[in-house]
Amino acid sequence: MASHIVGYPRMGPKRELKFALESFWDKKSSAEDLQKVAADLRSSIWKQMAAAGIKYIPSNTFSYYDQVLDATSMLGAVPPRYGWNGGEIGFDTYFSMARGNASVPAMEMTKWFDTNYHFIVPELGPDVNFSYASHKAVDEYEEAKALGVDTIPVLIGPVSYLLLSKPAKGVEKTFSLLSLLPKILPIYKEVIAELKAAGASWIQFDEPTLVLDLDSHQLQAFTAAYAELETTLSGLNVLIETYFADLTAEAYKTLTELKGVTAYGLDLVRGTQTIELIKSNFPKGKYLFAGVVDGRNIWANDLASSLSTLQALEAVVGKDKLVVSTSCSLLHTAVDLVNETKLDDEIKSWLAFAAQKVVEVNALAKALAGQKDEAFFTANASAQASRKSSPRVTNEAVQKAAAALKGSDHRRATNVTARLDAQQKKLNLPVLPTTTIGSFPQTLELRRVRREFKANKISEDDYVKAIKEEIKKVVDLQEELDIDVLVHGEPERNDMVEYFGEQLSGFAFTVNGWVQSYGSRCVKPPIIYGDVSRPKPMTVFWSSTAQSMTKRPMKGMLTGPVTILNWSFVRNDQPRFETCYQIALAIKDEVEDLEKAGINVIQIDEAALREGLPLRKSEHAFYQKWAVHSFRITNCGVQDTTQIHTHMCYSNFNDIIHSIIDMDADVITIENSRSDEKLLSVFREGVKYGAGIGPGVYDIHSPRIPSTEEIADRINKMLAVLETNILWVNPDCGLKTRKYAEVKPALSNMVAAAKLLRTQLASAK
């Protein structure tokens, strides 16, 4: 019985690629140095999978930034502003598209489906001259072959590539991106021909958009694309991989009738209903790559249950046609549990990271073939039973408090207009008030202080002294820049979710459980294994300390319950909304303690609210109801004069704008600059928004420093659709990933732009 892995984490067990990328970007190392680190990581991954007994090992899932950007490079679809003149795309052009450069901004970045991974959105139009401009897929296949590992090269499928794209600036929004299929398929044919010539016997096309709500025209595009590729694909085994949700009956029919396709990869973890479609009608003689091992969470697989599912599927598709696989790429999990030295043995026994999932896949394949490892299965069953019965998982008081939430919508008693009036009397802010989103640059010295405190190398007194000094530096800088509403810079926090999780019960933490978010940015999601509560205040000391250093309003900075949920590895033994309500109650306690401590502006970030939106429209309403309710629970008890902010970053917000309004925050700051001000189109189309709003005026994920004029131009575009008295001026997101040399001039220009507009508005009266 064969086994397959959809994809694997790229960063390395100790984030080796992250550090190599940042060293290269900082001009501290060469392209050759970066390429060597990457080659060593790829070699290690391929050999590890081969040693574990995996038959179908993927190649071309490694990326220096993002797999969609790799596809853009392969197709030569470089926007003209990057000055690319043809030929093989090198690092300069590639990283300029991803990160921008001194003269031009980066391409838009948005969330990959409903994950916390981000991709670079292709910008396409009728005039794009596609050409085969990156031979990465072939190069990596040959690289693996030279190591003695035969792999399945993986490509983003042509239809999903177009459906994930957007019309370039200046192109009509109604432009049909699928009309470009005839232009990109010749490039795909070139790549396929080269892979065949190099000796590939299988090829994997990732077509994850098949799980979305697609109309008949979009489904027909898949049929047309693979019919066109059929001749070129002749002689190859072709796997179409889907993931993250069920397929509709129409999509399943389209998929299983595609020309020239040998195998179908299906997510049977998040797509359990797809199993019924398989049982009712699976094409004779085709392979099923059954994704029964969860690629998006870190819980050990219930091997007995998965084996039972596989045995039922084997009876449908045939013994020699069933391949055991992961539900999606393991990119979304941590790398290796072996590196976790501080997790206690009980919790560790409940977990499986990417390396362990590879072993699980192979163990299931062998068991299906009659070579069951009884000891491995027995240990797994014991761990499953331990997790179900462990007293540390359940807290009756928390469950009772969460159950008592039913029956109220937890809205603040006064409407937002009246609250804003009361807040303005107290805060006395100017028109177009300026603020930042929360974090300030995390310097090497700051990271050293936190690291040494965690390792007990410095005393708590020394740690507190160092953090207070950093806060004072950030407060003084903001006052010098004349920012209106200040933040303390979050020097005590390495990560916005991890920081809170460490102080809440029901969470566990890893040392090296890093997961790629975008580019070199990695996050270390906490593990929610049990009921959640707040034993004691988490931020009150630092916020009060910061407020004592200034007469200006100081924001209390919290992470909201939905974001903590969506950016954690969440327990899978109860509905997600139940866990979210528990977190909401813990944050509510913190909000009320901040208010008692004299903090008049409290920001509750819900950066990931849109990210958790289910992929199917039929499931949207239920998610939005409990997610928005969770946010309202956190602040329903504060006074009218306490201003509640929230923040959302990179996502498509337009389809949840009414839920955003329903959150009933006093002020929302939101990403805007990198998505071509897509957000503003909602307001142009007539949506009325009465609360304060700060669409980001510059992109903090790029090192580029915007001019005062550029920012003023952005503010003017906002003023064309938003009332002057509700508009705030702020960056897109927190500043932790930037350097002070970038932050100071950018914020200075931002404040100058706000003042320029205030003067113009005053003189126009």
TrEMBL record:
Cofactor field: Zn(2+)
GO biological process: methylation
Lineage: superkingdom: Eukaryota
Active site: 701
EC class of the enzyme, as a word: transferase
Reactions it catalyzes: 5-methyltetrahydropteroyltri-L-glutamate + L-homocysteine = tetrahydropteroyltri-L-glutamate + L-methionine
SUPFAM superfamilies: UROD/MetE-like (SSF51726)
Pathways per UniProt: Amino-acid biosynthesis; L-methionine biosynthesis via de novo pathway; L-methionine from L-homocysteine (MetE route): step 1/1
UniProt EC number: 2.1.1.14
Binding site for Zn(2+) 2: 658, 662
Residues that, per the record, bind 5-methyltetrahydropteroyltri-L-glutamate: 18, 116, 521-522, 567
Residues bound to Zn(2+) 1: 647, 649, 671, 733
Keywords: Amino-acid biosynthesis, Metal-binding, Methionine biosynthesis, Methyltransferase, Transferase, Zinc
Pfam families with a match to the protein in the record: Meth_synt_1, Meth_synt_2
Residues annotated to bind L-methionine: 437-439, 490, 605
Cofactor note: Binds 2 Zn(2+) ions per subunit.
GO molecular function terms attached to this record: 5-methyltetrahydropteroyltriglutamate-homocysteine S-methyltransferase activity; methionine synthase activity; zinc ion binding
InterPro entries named in the record: Cbl-indep_Met_Synth_N, Cobalamin-indep_Met_synthase, Met_Synth_C/arc, UROD/MetE-like_sf
Family: Belongs to the vitamin-B12 independent methionine synthase family.
PANTHER family hit by this protein: 5-METHYLTETRAHYDROPTEROYLTRIGLUTAMATE--HOMOCYSTEINE METHYLTRANSFERASE
Summary of the function given for this chain in its UniProt record: Catalyzes the transfer of a methyl group from 5-methyltetrahydrofolate to homocysteine resulting in methionine formation.
Protein name: 5-methyltetrahydropteroyltriglutamate--homocysteine S-methyltransferase
Species whose genome carries this gene: Gossypium arboreum (Tree cotton)
